[in-house]
Design goal:
With 416 residues, the protein is of the alpha+beta class. A seven-stranded mixed β-sheet has the order 3-9-10-14-13-12-11. A five-stranded mixed β-sheet has the order 18-17-19-20-21, with helices on both faces. The radius of gyration is 25 Å and the shape is globular. The structure holds adenosine-5'-triphosphate (ATP). The site of adenosine-5'-triphosphate has 13 residues, from strand 10, strand 13, strand 14 and helix 10.
Length: 416
């Protein structure tokens, strides 16, 4: 895991949050490469599940909602985790995690005596306006789902949708986790990509199976190796208060097999709770949910490859932060720089392109391999006479010479 955390920092994927002030535990910032990767994931997801389908539409709802939403949804009463404190070192832990992962031993000091379990609300509270009293309390949403439920009528009527149909949204959620850890796996502030798919009760099993396949296809689309995740169904006593069936997609992270995504049959719990209906009946809901941070972590783990003389991030080209890097062979030859800049200008409007003229060419390849850049273009002395360049393939390290006139088309073809 340490290798992935340090590559993420070294190349500008993920930085510790507020680092110059000693950090703020379990907050992380996406750097220049991280934000490109995140945006590529979100765009691909939006395209697959919203733009290319006629039965799903998107929304973007507020993070702050009327507190009545969270009362109706059951979050105020039920969104809590069991908290215990180690009697020896006074660190706090989630009781269920202690049992599952640590054989009921304190991970900090090895102690075995804990206080009684207390329920700890996972909802972050804040207040609106100058007076901080009971009437001004609002919560930062712990899931994006409720924004889709409360807009059910607005969306259904304006988009004139008929069952079955879905509402999708990508947005921030906040959870006051007791034991956040493992890099960006469990953080306080994260993004979710969620779909609420409204159906008739009859036939929910078929929709559930279809969504399971859709999620498997998505994982294949982004290049996650099938061998590295498993699908696990929740036991009855593990199910959330609203669910009749839930499966988790669990990824084999370096620190163990843990939830990446979830798929839940939420019954008619949510629309009933908000007293919403459609043509005299209350639709049921299938909810596929995808965490952005956990996707990024799984992608980094899956793509991370150590070879004899290099580390390569074998990201799918569609997700790679930079598609192309352009280098002048030597950094101190103005004629090479001039020509290479022309090539850079030619490419930069077509692909996310990066310029690099530091150090020697070997170091530049090394750093682009670590960044996951699929293609490196080098302008050398032959380029000046022949108007051509070399294209180096990240995975095979093979280099081909191609004419600059054909470069854009060739790259488009390769990146398809
Ligand atoms: P866990 O059991 O790991 O706490 P959960 O079952 O509470 O997760 P859900 O409520 O199903 O998670 O949330 C939906 C998705 O949001 C998860 O599958 C995950 O991808 C993401 N997610 C949930 N909590 C966090 C968090 N604290 N940090 C990052 N991502 C999260």
């Amino acid at each position: 895991m340490q290798k992935i955390v340090s590559l993420a920092k070294r190349r500008g994927f993920v930085f510790p949050g507020s680092e110059i002030y000693g950090g703020l535990a379990n907050t992380w910032d996406f750097g220049p490469l991280g934000v490109e990767l995140v945006n590529n994931v979100k765009q691909l997801w939006w395209h697959k599940f919203v733009k290319s389908r006629s039965d799903i539409v998107g929304i973007s709802s507020s993070i702050l909602m009327n507190p009545k939403v969270w009362e109706a949804s059951g979050h105020v009463a039920g969104f809590s985790d069991p908290l215990v404190e180690c009697k020896k070192c006074h660190t706090r832990h989630r009781a269920d995690h202690l049992k599952e992962e640590n054989g009921n031993k304190c991970p900090s000091c090895g102690g075995t005596e804990f206080t009684e379990e207390k329920q700890f609300s996972g909802m972050f509270k804040t207040s609106i306006g100058p007076a901080e009293d009971e009437t001004s309390i609002v919560y930062l949403r712990p899931e994006t789902a409720q924004g889709m439920f409360v807009n059910f009528k607005n969306v259904q009527q304006t988009a004139r949708l008929k069952l079955p149909f879905g509402i999708a949204q990508i947005g921030k959620s906040f959870r006051n986790e007791i034991t956040p850890r493992n890099f960006i796996f469990r953080v306080l502030e994260f993004e979710q990509m969620e779909i609420e798919y409204f159906i008739e009760e009859k036939g929910w099993e078929k929709h559930f199976d279809t969504w399971q396949k859709e999620m498997e296809n998505w994982l294949a689309d982004i290049g996650i190796n099938k061998k590295n995740y498993v699908i696990r169904e929740h036991d009855k006593d593990e199910l959330s208060h609203y669910s009749k069936k839930t499966i988790d997609f669990e990824y084999q992270y370096p620190f163990g097999q843990k939830e990446l995504y979830g798929l839940a049959y939420r019954t008619d719990f949510d629309l009933k709770a908000h007293k919403l209906s459609y043509e005299g009946m209350v639709p049921h809901v299938i909810e596929p949910t995808f965490g952005v941070e956990r996707t990024i972590l799984a992608l980094l783990c899956d793509a991370y490859t150590e070879e004899k003389d290099r580390i390569v991030l074998k990201l799918k080209p569609a997700l790679a932060p930079y598609k192309v890097a352009v280098f002048p062979l030597l950094a101190n030859k103005p004629e090479l720089i001039k020509k290479a800049k022309k090539v850079f200008d030619l490419l930069k409007d077509e692909f996310t392109t990066v310029w690099d003229a530091r150090g020697n060419i070997g170091k530049r390849y090394y750093s682009q391999d670590e960044a996951g850049t699929p293609f490196c273009i080098t302008v050398d002395f032959d380029s000046l006479d022949n108007n051509d360049v070399t294209i180096r393939d990240r995975d095979t390290m093979k280099q081909d010479r191609v004419s600059i006139d054909k470069l854009v088309d060739i790259l488009k073809q390769k990146l398809k």
